[in-house]
Design a protein that fits this description.
Shape: elongated
GO molecular function: DNA-binding transcription factor activity; transcription cis-regulatory region binding
Pfam families: TetR_C_28 (PF17937), TetR_N (PF00440)
Protein name: TetR family transcriptional regulator
Number of helices: 9
Organism: Rhodococcus rhodnii LMG 5362
Number of domains: 2
Structural class: mainly alpha
Keywords: DNA-binding, Transcription, Transcription regulation
Strand content: under 5%
Helix content: over 70%
Order of helices and strands: HHHHHHHHH
Number of strands: 0
Length: 179
């Protein structure tokens, strides 16, 4: 039950971050949005900083689970990292996408716990890529391209032309038979 309440609170925080931004988010507002008392929220998260940090850590847990699922399904971490996010679907990918947008809205340089949690998430992704790709320069290129694709999706920029992007990923990951 406590886990359900924690998730309900974190989901409420994400919704508010997406709707009004970090400056307008208050403990009281999150409690109201989650349907819990302020005391109930503070039982789980003793401060706004702790609440924001927990949201980012949950993002990391969700992304780790998605990456593990993709890898166990025959994909690679690099292929997962380079996928174009789809905010229109209603599955776990869309939830991760919304969580990432909400988390990025919290990184303002003023919340140390949040900044550290975001760094931990990004380092975990980087570590997975470096473990999979022998060449550290290639691993860094994959990370930077994936970051750029995700940022473009977050900003609502047009998606790359699918066939061209497929060729980019193939070349980047060493399967360049179309050259």
């Amino acid at each position: 039950m406590a886990s359900d309440t924690r998730d309900r609170i974190l989901d409420a925080l994400e919704r508010l971050l997406l709707d009004v931004g970090l400056a307008q988010v208050t403990i009281e507002g999150v409690a109201d949005e989650a349907g819990v008392s302020k005391g109930g929220l503070l039982y789980h998260f003793p401060s706004k900083e702790a609440l924001l940090g927990a949201m980012v850590r949950r993002l990391g847990e969700r992304s780790d689970a998605q990456m593990d699922e993709a890898v166990s399904g025959g994909s690679t971490a690099a292929q997962w990292y380079l996928q174009i996010p789809d905010s229109s679907s209603m599955d776990s990918e869309a939830a991760l996408y919304r969580s990432m947008i909400a988390a990025l809205r919290t990184v303002d340089g003023q919340h140390t716990e949040v900044q550290n949690a975001m760094i931990d998430v990004m380092r975990a992704w980087d570590s997975q890529l470096r473990a999979e790709i022998d060449d550290p320069v290639q691993a860094e290129i994959v990370r930077l391209v994936g970051d750029g694709v995700y940022l473009a999706a977050l900003l609502g920029l047009p998606k790359p032309e699918p066939e061209l992007y497929r060729k980019v990923v193939e070349r980047l990951l060493g399967d360049d038979t179309d050259r």
